[in-house]
Amino acid sequence: MAIGASVPAIATMLRLNSDEQKGWLEAIHARSVSRLHLFGAYTIVGTVAGLLALFAGTFGMALGGQGAKHAFDISRIMRSFWGFAPAVLVVIGIVAVVLGLLPRYQQIAWIIPIYAVLSIYLGGLLDFPEWTKKLTPFGWINKVPLKAIQWNQAGWLVLLSIVLVVVGYSLYRRRDLVEN
């Protein structure tokens, strides 16, 4: 579910460069709107989209499970939202770096969810080594809600995502704007 929640976040953030290439942001660039404001707007909307998708999926699964004979407590299932949200944030940070560093090749950001599905969910069938799961942010999450959230690891992932977004913005600020 967290991998699926990263898809709207990636799609929203990649709109920044595609909107520039289509010329939709020329009127905004002509005004006194800073790059920080523009980059921040796309990043915040992408973050909200990803976290809302994760929350909706988790809450929907929690509500759907209430019809079962031995239903889990909703709060126990909602722990998976808090457990997987840092991984979605790291994906947003990686996409921010890709936006600033490789605007022409921004589509490589889609490798993150594709590789996550291959390594985490199909890795057992394909006999991938255990370390291949750690190459994706989703591989660092404990088996939540079956186990407790590792808050120190979640904190490091959130900190990493903040650093990646700052690096992505600094790279975006230094590159040339795309002209239509």
TrEMBL record:
The chain crosses the membrane at residues 39-61, 81-101, 108-126, 154-172. Keywords: Membrane, Transmembrane, Transmembrane helix. This is ABC transporter permease protein.
